[in-house]
Design a protein that fits this description.
About 10% of the residues lie in helices and about 25% in strands. By secondary structure, the chain is α+β, with helices and mostly antiparallel strands. The strands form 4 sheets. The protein has a 6-stranded antiparallel barrel with strand order 3-4-5-8-7-6.
Amino acid sequence: MYRRPVALTSALALGLIATIAGIDTLTSEATAFTSRPQTAASRVAAAAPSPSASPSPSASPSPSPSNAAEPAPVAQSGQGAGSSPTQGSSQVVPPVALGTTATAPVTAESGRVGVLFTGSTPTANHTCSASVLHSSTKNLVLTAAHCVSATPAGLLFAPGYRNGQTPSGVWQVTKVFLADGWTASGDQDEDYAILQIAENGTTNIEDAVGGTVLGLDAPFTDTVRLYGYPDSAELPLLCTNVTSRQDTFQRRIDCPSYSGGTSGGPFIDTDTNQVIGVIGGYQQGGDTDDTSYGAYFDHTIGTLYQQAVSASS
């Protein structure tokens, strides 16, 4: 049995009629990316290792980088965080031993991570985790695709949620952006979603809590901070550890106690402060509490991000 929440799973995504087509006209943040294979079959043909195989961090894929200039909020590996006051480069995260899971301290970074829920309150009703994504539109949130459906009616996001309190308010999800491979077949290698968030009054969510830069093509062997909210708890978890390669387009991390509800929680690179993955993908994030997975972030999510920015402008 999958340990990640599956109330809104790939079964819903398979019925979506929205497709993410090639974009001809984009905002100043958009740029073209070289497409990688969009179907599981094409990856099998490329002799991808079995998901049950042992991780092999040295055998990272080599996605083709864009020849065009990268938009400011999307960073290639090694480019740095592109820090600004809204991108959270000034947060202070206390050092902890690698592979140790504890309650996340209250920081600017943890304040951008929160819970997805339906109903009047997130208390005992949150089903997935999510985090605010930096963009020029200041209204985007990142989570796992299996956490959402195409029609987000009633779906809410509470950043910084703790013990029934919503210190940064409750925000309405108004639109969901999903990759083609997920909408077509629930492809685990595209188990990520970008959500459009309505203003609270006249304030955008990123103006309220800041946003984390989307990082592309980060090495599989990378040290990250992993956040997530178990659906049985009212406080966020934080674990820092080194990731590895589980499969051609799957990242793995060993952190204890990441049970149901942590899906959609961000992998944040400790060097760049960029988000380079979310809990999801293989086994919808993992079928044991101590190992989590995430789909690899390359130009496929970069293209999805560009579409979300263009549609949200």
